[in-house]
Amino acid sequence: MNVDEEEVMDFTKSRVALPGEPLTSSQAYMRGHGTYVDTEDVVASVAGTIERVNKLITVKAIRTRYNAEVGDLIVGRITEVQPKRWKVDANARQDAILMLSSVNLPGGVQRRKLESDELQMRNFFEEGDLLVAEVQAFFSDGAISLHTRSLKYGKLRNGQLVVVPSALIRRLKSHFIALACGVDLILGLNGYIWVSKHVRENEQEGEEGFDAEAVYSNMNDDIDLGTRQAITRVSNIIKILAAHFVPLTDTRLAEAYEWSIEHEEDAQNLFQQESAEQLVAVVNTIA
């Protein structure tokens, strides 16, 4: 698929390139990520969608590891507890690091972390725990440095994890989404999505604005049958849209849920080919 200027080609629409496929002349365009120059052609080095910014041609891989940026919201899983730090699976090329100095301690008081705090690290997070955090910086070896110094961040409970390609998560004004059905979503930019029971903001605050027992608790709250079914339905919708490579946004997920309620009483039936194709067709009409 040559994308020379002579051809009438709309770059605003996704076009898929294959590895080794000539894209255009290196005389007319500059090569970007996912491409290389061979003789006088710009050639795709990965399978993905072609994007153009002025004279710069790039190919965004369909499936790739998450590339973090400072300020990104991510959902991760604790893989190891080390001295003064936790290692976190963030779907990146290497585990992220959450330092003990980058978390809120019980009482909500900002102070230097003591040896006694280090001895209690597993009371805060232990292997297998899921958490939501923000990318704070990068270490010299490229590892991601995280922090949870906010009431919005911390250990995750009362829900389930859905994993999708990170390329499908669009950057939104807020990645904390509360659906009308009583389900909360956290869209991690690393492709990890947390689907959970809705929790009002003041439920996590104690007398001093920080309830450590709730934030670091390992016990789920009681979840009624209706909420469990809603969580399952939303999770199934996300899996179907991801399987069809549909980018995920708050408006698309809300519209998809409303459509599924009207057309499929049983959430499991959404996986049937006809229902899945109809759902994807409806969602694709939404910007």
From TrEMBL:
The keyword NADP does not apply. Keywords: Exosome, Nucleus, RNA-binding, rRNA processing. Gene3D superfamilies: 2.40.50.100, Nucleic acid-binding proteins. Residues 69-149 form the S1 motif domain. It comes from the Eukaryota. The keyword rRNA processing applies. This is S1 motif domain-containing protein. Belongs to the RRP4 family. InterPro entries: Exosome_cplx_N_dom, Exosome_RNA_bind1/RRP40/RRP4, KH_dom_type_1, KH_dom_type_1_sf, NA-bd_OB-fold, S1_domain, S1_RRP4. It is found in: Nucleus. Its main location: nucleus. GO terms for biological process: CUT catabolic process; exonucleolytic trimming to generate mature 3'-end of 5.8S rRNA from tricistronic rRNA transcript (SSU-rRNA, 5.8S rRNA, LSU-rRNA); nuclear mRNA surveillance; nuclear polyadenylation-dependent rRNA catabolic process; poly(A)-dependent snoRNA 3'-end processing; TRAMP-dependent tRNA surveillance pathway; U4 snRNA 3'-end processing. GO terms for cellular component: cytoplasmic exosome (RNase complex); nuclear exosome (RNase complex).
